[in-house]
Amino acid sequence: MIDIMCEVLTPENLTDALQLLAKADSTTKILAGGTDVVVGKTQGSKRFADTVTLIDINRIEELKGIFEKDGMISIGAATTFSEICKSKLVEEKLPLLKKASSTIGSLQIRNRATIAGNFVNNAPCADTVPALLVYDASIEIKSQAATRNISLQEFLQGPYKTQLQQGELVTRILVPTPKQNYAGDFYKLGRRRAVAISRLTLAVLILLNGKEIADIKIASGAVTPIGKRFPKLEEFAKGKVMTDNLLRDLSKKMGEEVLAVTGLRWSSDYKLPVVQQMFYQLLKGIER
Ligand SMILES: Cc1cc2nc3c(=O)[nH]c(=O)nc-3n(C[C@H](O)[C@H](O)[C@H](O)COP(=O)(O)OP(=O)(O)OC[C@H]3O[C@@H](n4cnc5c(N)ncnc54)[C@H](O)[C@@H]3O)c2cc1C
């Protein structure tokens, strides 16, 4: 039988939460929306088997809100996807994050699930990761002793593994306000249209100078073990004219890069052409 009983602590502010965390050991976990931790505990997931205490961060105002300051968009770690979808700032400046957030689970899940919970859990299919990666997101992490900032890419170490240390809490997500007019899109492929676990996610931002690619940022999720950028492919594309031939070439190379990360698998015969075709269609859509 699965024991799902946990003690739940409910700090009212950040100072109290960090104090509780400083005293805690690995049997204590943060509880945000609970859509991974509570579901995992209930289903007997090994990752939460020894969790006996949860620190509920939902009452902490310092972990909420979306605002712009000093050229950075700051998103509170405990901001829900419904709040992100409603934010005018996100809609205007980070449209790919809005699109990715709107594809998560159902309305009920989006009303509970938080942005930090998504990438701290770091499932391969965490939908907001590719969008955050192309926006060069970094995160602010606090413990009672220190505050540190780290790029999201560095924070993510492997499936369900991050750099988060005992006693630390993710407090905010920081995204440099895009200064130029990047065009872009986010694409999610699941087995069905709603409440679907992603099989493939792609996020692309392109800055065009006439027909020439001045800058490009490419990220994937689900089809790679964790969300990742493709610096070699980005460098290859920069400075080239956006012709149909180039888009086909980029799509072919994207498939090869994904294969290089995942290795040849039984599913590669399906995944490779799907990645290439979806990436091509995404680029074509941006070109239009
Ligand atoms: C029915 C269903 C559908 C879903 N659909 C999708 C989907 O389409 N796409 C998708 O990407 N995900 C989906 N999920 C997974 C889940 O909703 C997301 O990963 C969500 O973002 C997790 O956030 P949360 O606030 O619920 O995290 P929680 O479950 O509260 O926490 C998740 C993990 O992060 C840690 N944590 C949370 N916040 C912090 C913080 N501030 N600092 C440090 N550690 C923290 C917790 O300790 C825990 O280890 C789905 C889940 C369900 C149940």
Which ligands, by name, code or SMILES, are bound? flavin-adenine dinucleotide
**Any guess at the CATH architecture of the largest domain?**
2-Layer Sandwich
Q: Quote the distance from N terminus to C terminus.
A: 56 Å
* Contiguous uncertain segments of 5+ residues: none
Largest sheet strand order: 4-5-10-6-7
CATH class descriptor of the largest domain: Alpha Beta
Structure class: alpha+beta
- Secondary-structure element pattern, one letter each: EHEHEEEHHHHHHEEHEEEEEEEHHH
Which value, in Å, is the CA radius of gyration? Answer: 19 Å
CATH topology of the largest domain: Uridine Diphospho-n-acetylenolpyruvylglucosamine Reductase, domain 3
Chain-wise SSE layout:
Elements: E1 7-9, H1 14-23, E2 28-31, H2 37-42, E3 53-56, E4 66-69, E5 72-76, H3 81-86, H4 88-93, H5 95-102, H6 107-112, H7 115-121, H8 128-134, E6 138-142, E7 147-151, H9 152-155, E8 156-158, E9 161-162, E10 169-176, E11 183-190, E12 198-209, E13 212-221, E14 228-229, H10 231-237, H11 244-262, H12 268-287
Parallel strand pairs: 1-3, 2-3
Antiparallel strand pairs: 4-5, 5-10, 6-7, 6-10, 8-9, 11-12, 12-13, 13-14
Helix pairs in contact: 11-12
The protein binds flavin-adenine dinucleotide.
